[in-house]
Amino acid sequence: MLLRDVRWAVEAVNRTFGGHFTCLMQGMAGKAMLNRRGVANTLVLGARLGGETDPSADAGMSAHAWLCAGHVILLGGEARAGFVPVTSYHSAP
């Protein structure tokens, strides 16, 4: 219930502001909310090269962030396919 409420709150604020918040901004907001409530969580930052999954795409690098609480991917999970975790920031309760 708590995880669902945090996810809803972050997504609701993003919708209210026209969807302008990046995955990193949303992940950091969710992480702060979970930290305040004493819930263990991990913010993962990943990267991929542009041409790896789509040869017609730009050959540059792209990045993505997602937030996990235990084995649940709370935010950013739907777009993480193809991204390799580069670093992560864990907060224990």
Integer count of domains: 1
Indicate the mean pLDDT: 91
SSE string: HHEHEEE
Shape: globular
Give the terminus-to-terminus CA distance: 17 Å
- Number of helices, counting only DSSP H or I runs of 4 residues or more: 3
The computed structural class is: alpha+beta
- State which percent range the strand residues make up: 25-35%
- Within the largest sheet, what's the order of strands? 3-2-1-4
Q: Considering DSSP H and I runs of 4 or more, what fraction of the residues is helical?
A: 25-40%
Total count of strands: 4
Computed over alpha carbons, the radius of gyration is: 14 Å
Q: How many strands, what sense, and barrel or not for the largest sheet? A: 4 strands, antiparallel
Keywords, separated by commas or semicolons:
3 helices; alpha+beta; 93 residues; single chain
Describe the structure.
Helix 1 packs across helix 2. The two termini are 17 Å apart. It contains 3 helices and 4 strands; from the N terminus they run ααβαβββ. The protein is α+β, with helices and mostly antiparallel strands and 93 residues long.
